[in-house]
Structure formats: C-alpha cells, structure tokens
Amino acid sequence: MEIRRLSGKAIICDVGSFDYLLPVPKKDRHYDLLDVFRNAGVAAGAVIGAGAGPFFLTGSNSEMVINISSESGVVKNGSLFGLYDKENNKPLLTKADNTKFALLGQMFMCEGKPGPVIELNVSGRIQDGKFDAMIREALHVKYGHLNNAVGLGGVIVQEKGKSLYHVLVSVFLYFTKFPTVIIFFP
C-alpha cells in the first residue's frame, strides 16, 4: 500500500455508476483519480479501492485496484490493472502508469493520519459465503436501524489461501454476453 495509516477525514467515494455499464456501456465516462482528491477537498492522503480501468488508454477492458497517495504535491501510484491477455489466453496483472479510470470506481479516501482501526483476524471458514458479504451483513445487523448510510473502508490482507477475482473480457458487449475470467492469486 502507498500509505500506512487510514484515518483523518475518511470519505467513502463512489465515482460514476453501474448505470454507465448496463445495459450498454457509456464509453464517454472517463475519470482521473487526481480529480477525486481535488473534488473531495483532501490535499494529502490516500485513495484505495476498485474500479474499471481506462479502456480508452489500454485498448481493452480491465479491472483496477486503486492505490494512490499524495503528499506535498508528490503522487505515488501503486494501482494495478487486471487485464485479459487475448493473445496468450491468460490473465495479466500490470502496474498502472497513469491515474485514469472509466465508468465507475468505489473508493475509500483519507488523509493518512494515525487513528483507530478495526482489526479482523480470520482463520478458516465456518460457513459458505463471501467474506465481504458477511462483513456487510454484520454492519447491517449492528447499524441497520439507523437512518444514516454506513460505510466501511480499509484493506484486507490475505496471508495464505486462494482468492478468486474476475475480469470482464470485453466492456463493449452487452452484459449478458460478457465472458468472465477467473484469476487465482495464491
């Protein structure tokens, strides 16, 4: 991660929309992570999250792992693109060489200051289901009675085991025809 602390002016940030993906992708929706900093009013800090990579620059669809920090005008970009290499018929992970993205992004932004954190230590699986869905359900049980939106941002560190990720091969087809590629990261 480009920054080690996750507190100070914490902001959950949705840019774009899934509506820009369905039923037909709106190819004119282009964004820049540096604009996200500016529009949120955070002069220094970090943005982490996920979004659609800049197909308008890479020439193909990609998923983006957002990991950017900015301090004293210096930007560090540790973001990654998950692409599908059609030529070799395999998934490809590349370091981002720009701060652009497309269609949508879901991010957590903060000033990178020290502060309290929630630490979850998980070992083994006791029931079926997705980890993020279980966290969402726990938040709903605890805070669902409130009339305010509740968001949680942070990082999940997986020390062992396998995870499944997907990359949609083509953003220019109708959603129901998207082939999905599963990427295993041991």
UniProtKB/TrEMBL annotation:
Membrane spanning stretches: 164-185
UniProtKB keywords: Hydrolase, Membrane, Metal-binding, Nucleus, Transmembrane, Transmembrane helix, Zinc
SUPFAM superfamilies linked: AF0104/ALDC/Ptd012-like (SSF117856)
Localization of this protein: Nucleus
Domain DUF1907 positions: 2-182
Keyword Acetylation in annotation: no
Quaternary context: Monomer.
Protein known as: DUF1907 domain-containing protein
Species for this entry: Schistosoma curassoni
